[in-house]
Structure formats: C-alpha cells, structure tokens
Amino acid sequence: KTTTCVNLASALVEANRKVLLIDLDPQGNATMGCGINSRQLEQSALEVLLGEASIADVRVELEHGLHLVPANTDLTAAEVGLMEAEDRELKLKRAIAEVADAYQYVIIDCPPSLSMLTVNALCAAHGVLIPMQCEYYALEGLTSLLDTIGRVQETVNPGLQLEGLLRTMFDVRNNLSNEVSTQLIQHFGDKVYRTIVPRNIRVAEAPSF
Questions:
Q1: CA Rg, the chain, in Å?
Q2: Which H/E stretch holds residue 192?
C-alpha cells in the first residue's frame, strides 16, 4: 500500500505533475519512505486533522519536487481527538480544499484498518485505488472495504469512485494467486489494472536504501 503511494507519487512528479502525498498512517512508513525521519517531526498530519495547523504549514518539499504531509505515531492521538469533534469525518477534506489549487494530484496513504483516519481519507477523496495481494484473506478484507466505501458514498461523499484494483506482491507460480486474479477480473472487469506488481526481493529491500 505505502510502496504504491510513494512510487506513484514520485512517478507523477517525474512526469511534471504537481503532487501532494499525505501520510495518514501512524506507522509513518510513507514519511520514512520519502527520506524523512518521522521521529523528529515538529508538526504532522495530526495538527492538520485537529485544526491546529494547515497543510501549507506542515507540508515538506522533497528534493525532487514532491510535497509531503508527514506522519508518525502521534497520529494515533487524532483518533481520540476526533471522537467528539463536530463534522469529524470532514477535517481532511476541508484542509485539502485550502491547497487544492496548487496540485494536480493528492495521494493519501491510509492506515491498514478502517478507522476514523481512513474515513477522513474516503470523505476527502475522489477515488480509491486498492492495492491487494491475490490471497483469500485479502478478498475478505476487500469485501469490508467495499462496504465502507458504499456507506461513505451514501452519506457524505456521493462522488467517491473505485478507481481500480492493483494486484501486487503477485507470484505467478502460485495457483491461488492466479485463481484469485481470475475472480477479480470476472467480478470487477476493467477496474482491475493491467499492471501487475510481482513479488520481488528488490522491491522489498528498496525502502531500506
């Protein structure tokens, strides 16, 4: 998930697009993957969600032109802080609206769970890109995610679309991977991207470099 966000954002910048990457995962992996030490942040996505700072205050411009709203474990406090906040699911959407004219793409790296942080991302987004492994448990998780997307569409963000499904960490030698891949294509048709990211040790090693 994070690898997809970081590399997609970087590729878009290389194609001369103006891109903002928002790390909304308390693990801060997208932040670390962009070369920023998440433990040394003075401000992060936490302050944005709590209304204590704007994205313009918090964003970091990286060497190659990508703008990043960083995150670290402090972001877990946002869950508590948002519980009693008015319009709590719309905090990120309003923050992005203030800087939207400066970017052609805003990419949000979500947490691995369906939390209030994820709901904020779904309320702010125009589309959802779902990276998934072709395994049985991933199919179960996909069902839960699609249910959540459906509820968000019905209530606060009717324009939210499923952009597509990206098959990642794919092992062509695995029969189950091929079976799940076939099921995805049968069910989602052209929503399944033609691009397949193979299981590759170099991809796994890349963040450490």
A1: 17
A2: strand 192-198
- Classified as helix, coil or strand, 65 is coil
Amino acid at 76: T
pTM reported for the whole predicted model: 0.92
- Band (pLDDT 50/70/90 cuts) for residue 8 is very high
How many C-beta atoms surround the C-beta of residue 155 within 10 A? 10
Taking only the tens place, the pLDDT of each residue in 47-95 is 999 999 999 999 999 988 999 999 999 998 888 888 888 889 999 999 9
Q: Tell me which residue of 52, 53, 121 sits closest to 92, measured CA to CA.
A: 121
Q: What is the C-alpha to C-alpha distance for residues 176 and 141, in angstroms, rounded to an integer?
A: 16
CB neighbours of 9 closer than 8 A, spacing ≥ 6? Answer: 19, 21, 66, 105, 107
**Cα-flanking dihedrals φ and ψ of residue 108, to 5°?**
-115, 120
Given CA atoms 46, 91, 102, 22 in this order, what sign does their dihedral have?
A: positive
Q: What is the C-alpha separation between 28 and 112, in angstroms, rounded?
A: 12
* Rounded-to-integer distance, Cα 92 and Cα 49, Å: 6
- Identity of the residue numbered 53: A
Report yes or no: 69 and 59 within 8 Å, Cβ to Cβ: yes
Distance in angstroms (rounded) separating the CA atoms of residues 207 and 209: 5
97 SS3 class:
helix
Of the pLDDT bands very low, low, confident and very high (cuts 50, 70, 90), residue 158 is very high
